[in-house]
Amino acid sequence: METDGCNALPARYLDRVDPRARVLLAIGVVGVVAVAGRFLTLGAALAGALVCAAVSGNPWRLLRRRLAALNAVLLLVAVVLPLTTEGTPVFHAGARPYTREGLLTAAAVVLKGNAIVLASIGLLGTLPAATLGHVLSHFYVPDKLVQLTVFTVRYLDVFRREYTRLRAAMRVRGFRPGVNRHTYRSFGYLAGMLLVRSLDRSERIAAAMKCRGFRGRYYLLDHFAFSPARDVPFAVAAALAVLALAWLEWA
Amino acid sequence: MSEPLLELRNVTFCYGLDRPVLRGCNLRIAGGDRLALAGANGSGKTTLLHLTVGLLRPASGEIVAFGRPRRREADFHEVRRRAGLLFQDTDDQLFCATVAEDVAFGPLNLGKPRAEARRIVAETLGCVGLPGFERRITYHLSGGERRLVALASVLAMQPDALLLDEPTAGLDEASTARLTEVLRGLPQAMLVVSHDRKFREAVTVQTLLLCEGRIDAGPS
After folding, report:
1. Which residue of B has its CA nearest to A223?
2. Average pLDDT of chain A, as a whole number
3. Superfamily name and number for B4-217
4. Partner-chain contact A210 B55, CB within 8 Å
5. Per-residue model confidence as pLDDT tens digits over A77-136
6. Quick check: ipTM above 0.90?
7. Closest alpha carbon to B62 in B99, B134, B10
8. Rounded distance, CA B50 to CA B125, Å?
9. Is B100 in Cβ contact with A205 (below 8 Å)?
10. What is the separation of C-alpha B45 from the centre of its chain, rounded to a whole number of angstroms?
11. What whole-number distance in Å separates Cα of residue A62 and Cα of residue B188?
């Protein structure tokens, strides 16, 4: 998720579309892919997701890193799943057979995982966090959840800075982590300190919000404009894409 | 002497049972006043500001704001709008993603329509010397700019008095000069907590000293 991006005029097509349509498309694609089982559907979804990711403007480096992390986990699944699934043996690894059913399931899982992650990165990755929060509140997601999302993004960096400061303070006093009680206790203090500071900070933020008239209701400054000329074609294309995936799966 | 905007009468306050911070503290801020408040670390300067806008309640004594005694939470809603408090740490005050949202937060809470909120945002940002900053990301700004945005977010409430808690903390000389310039141009009555003597002298006309829980008129 991008934490900035509202400062430039949107140049890419995806950034000009109504963000609500993007989020709906993402939900649709992810929903269908999650329950789909046919390779045709999964292949089509993966191809579509690749296109989304390619036009989304995410840097390739970031895509590569995310996919590498994902596939490292999936590799484990792909190795273990065929061993533990009953079915027709294809070949043997040691004493255990790799089954046909297991291999197919593993392939489906890998395809699904990549399609979902690519579609999410492509459609939501360049959406500024604040915008995503606004979209969620337009979809009547409970205010508390929306505020949690938005505040987490805003304060993550503050906490990271606080953590880095505390860690630096430990390091300049000669602290080197090892496998011993002193290390565990010191990290315990560090975690405790972060928790206490976070609590203090949240109280100060709440006080500051109260000073500016906050009484529990959060108002949005930005209102999304649904522009028919720009958003109807996208919405129609998005709906068709999701329907096509569903048709491939269930027709 | 004009009618005071904010007044603390014989206010005491303790953190816990054994840490008295204010002991019979008196303070008057009248329209047009430019007061500075100095005092040692932990002498209760921030506590005093928080008491004034009702974020804390005094153990005894009275807070009179804009002509009425204020006791309950509901009494302080109006006080917080009319006495704008600038927090010591801008990270506490600015919590929205963009500058415009942060500055508009107060006006929207006050029930202003969006169009008017936008107008207020543009106007206030112009007033603190940051015109056109609406779409900027708050936490990518420099410390000095952030402080000015925090000030704008307070000014957007159109307050009659300003309570500034260490506004120059963490600012370099250029940013301090810029802030000084902006503050000198504002019409509001002010109470400025600051350790920076030069800054106090540039922005205020009188320095009060908070010592042992009481306020004395200190050296100017």
Report:
1. B114
2. 85
3. P-loop containing nucleotide triphosphate hydrolases (3.40.50.300)
4. yes
5. 888 888 888 888 888 877 788 888 888 999 999 999 999 999 999 888 888 777 888 888
6. no
7. B10
8. 26
9. no
10. 12
11. 49
